[in-house]
């Protein structure tokens, strides 16, 4: 009860602070978002319970109606994760994750730092060609079985999540905000960024982040012993081999389906439908591995968490708070370019922490575009900064899909993610600003 009381008092404080700059309705929304974030962070209530509060609170305060709020909890993205969770449950049920984990242990150094670097790089590389959500869903159940040490489990889960977010920016297909940017540029008659040019721009930033972040995650693990790692098994069981073939089929399907404009248009299939289809395949007799009772293991609290993120984004648009923020940002147009980019990067990064990055970038790009029309700065440059920052949010599980998936593993606590994530957010903002000014503005 103490933490709940603290959360309520803090949100009231945010309300009165917000009234200095915003209308009463907007201040109420800001206060409610603060309440949700604090409750998620201090774990005063279960994460699933907090994630359902927008359905009650937002209509109660007249921000959006119940129908609008609940519709966000059935967003198509949510069903992509349900398919991935079904596959993860099947993987764990037949112990395929243990087999793959032990195979990985023979490849990289058996030290905490070596393991963290390896899973981060693996996640980043796969996320550059698959969606970062899919990659995290496939890798995190495997990574947390590389060790029995609870502290190292948490760091490995975070390394996968952060690695997937870092690698997701390398190609246009790695994460939804990238595709949203390209679509927005096309709609507004801006010259699109070609696939190879995108890689040329983003790969150096991703590489720098992959050198720094795993190192940070490996700090304080010198006392961790790896004696309890699982013993290597030589032979795959028939069920494990069958699931391995299905997973390879899934990866190949996702790769073949991916667009590489203007060279290859892909199969045109919906990625959510693909992953959900393979998830449902897990229930088919003599092909799959799980029964409906196993579906109880799906982390529904994470699904509710995504629904909360989409609902917050809907409230931003419905109440006009997004437009109000845009008006305040117009005051930034006379600032030096470095300050302007720092402000945009900071605003997008920390706003992403409280809403879905896909939903946020859909709201933010028109705002940034309007800002760019007034400011004396390259339009594509600031749109690129905003898009990358939408994927580089590391503090809260609601910020990006990989963060939420790391939470679903049970190995990570919100306060641990927030502790590492805040520092890494600051680092990411500085690195993106540096790369944008020193590198991107000469090649975009």
Automatic annotation (TrEMBL):
Keyword Glycosyltransferase: no
Entry-linked PANTHER family: SOLUTE CARRIER FAMILY 13 MEMBER, SOLUTE CARRIER FAMILY 13 MEMBER 2
Annotated ranges, domain Citrate transporter-like: 38-388
Superkingdom of the organism of origin: Bacteria
Lineage per the UniProt record: Bacteria, Pseudomonadati, Campylobacterota, Epsilonproteobacteria, Campylobacterales
GO cellular component: plasma membrane
Annotated InterPro entries: Cit_transptr-like_dom (IPR004680), SLC13A/DASS (IPR001898)
Protein name: Sodium:dicarboxylate cotransporter (Permease SLC13 domain)
Coiled-coil regions listed: none
The organism of origin for this protein: Arcobacter aquimarinus
